[in-house]
DNA sequence: TTAGAGGTTCCCCCTGCTGGAAGGTCAAGA
DNA sequence: TCTTGACCTTCCAGCAGGGGGAACCTCTAA
């Protein structure tokens, strides 16, 4: 099938699919006319990539997951380790965002939010210690 | 002062400081020898940028905050609005990450994590509906 | 005089695509 | 038969926010 249908079946934009070929994540055949020709196998890989990316895995991780996906002798422990690493990473990101949030909320609460220039948010950014 | 000292006083790498000049966030003077020459004003701006970036503001937002910082007739409401938008954005990011986390934890919990190939994580990525 | 620690510009690299230009191909309708 | 328009191709450039490194200049101290 052409890239348009592969796109619909994988929920990935054609541009992204071409990019994935560029970085050797999928290797579709070529038709006589030079068009890419996707097999159902190829579409499975694309759908796999779409789902993995949407779960937050990087391209490097997707490459690894894809190789495990296609390895009949894989150990599920290897897959689980990747997932747990990702969970740890997500936890760190959440912690970081929550800490940013706390700071911003504290600053915003102290700001009158009126038409006067006095502003503890600006003061904080400027490094003013007092107030 | 030279870029090295400006770097120390602002906690920003020299590369970043040069980049900020490139995108016109700071405009240091030049000494006779061609070296950048930072005033204390410039260093204040750099410190402001360092703090704002560390709180998660984008370069575009920093540019806006910087102009408010230097506007004696600013309305604190404008600053507060930017901060509140950022909080909303952080909330969305946290929500997204927590939803990813939930999915990944559920998948990881169902995975034996042994040396056998059966793996619900891979099955999910592959779009296998039935477990 | 010479070493080494600074400074300068320039260009490429990263992630993960996205947009656009310039052109080839195919199926359907007038 | 011609044309239109949808689809396909390749290539090039760009986003954020810098980082790495080359090739070169300048200053200071021994």
What is the strand and helix layout of this fold?
Two copies of one chain form a homodimer.
Chain A: H1 3-10, H2 14-22, E1 29-30, E2 36-37, H3 40-54, H4 59-69, H5 76-109, H6 120-126
Antiparallel strand pairs in A: 1-2
Helix pairs in contact in A: 3-4
Chain A binds a DNA duplex (30 and 30 nucleotides) through α2.
What does this structure look like?
The structure is a homodimer of 131-residue chains. With 131 residues, chain A is mostly helical. Chain A has two domains: 1-73, Multidrug-efflux Transporter Regulator, Chain: A, Domain 2 (Orthogonal Bundle), CATH 1.10.1660; 75-131. Chain A is built from six helices and two strands, in the order ααββαααα. Chain A has a two-stranded antiparallel sheet. In chain A, α3 (40-54) packs across α4 (59-69). The longest helix of chain A has 34 residues, at 76-109. Chain A is elongated, with a radius of gyration of 24 Å. Chain A starts with a helix and ends in a 5-residue tail after the last helix. Chains A and B meet through α3, α4, α5 and α6 of A and α3, α4, α5 and α6 of B. The first copy, chain A, binds a DNA duplex (30 and 30 nucleotides) through α2.
How big a fraction of the residues of chain A is strand?
Answer: under 5%
Give the integer mean of the pLDDT values of chain A.
95
Rg result of chain A: 24 Å
Shape of chain A: elongated
Q: Output the CATH class name of the largest domain in chain A.
A: Mainly Alpha
- Largest protein-protein interface: A-B, 52 and 52 residues
Indicate how many domains the architecture of chain A comprises.
2
The main sheet of chain A comes to: 2 strands, antiparallel
């Amino acid at each position: 099938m052409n890239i348009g249908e592969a796109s619909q079946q994988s929920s990935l934009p054609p541009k992204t699919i071409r990019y994935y070929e560029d970085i050797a994540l999928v290797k579709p055949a070529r038709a006589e006319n030079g068009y890419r020709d996707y097999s159902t196998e190829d579409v499975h890989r694309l759908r796999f990539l779409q789902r993995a990316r949407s779960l937050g895995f990087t391209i490097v991780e997707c490459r690894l997951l894809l190789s495990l996906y296609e390895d009949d002798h894989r150990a599920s422990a290897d897959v689980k380790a990747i997932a747990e690493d990702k969970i740890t990473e997500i936890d760190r990101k959440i912690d970081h965002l929550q800490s940013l949030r706390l700071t911003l909320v504290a600053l915003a609460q102290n700001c009158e939010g009126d038409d006067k220039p006095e502003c503890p948010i600006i003061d904080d950014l400027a490094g003013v210690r007092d107030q």
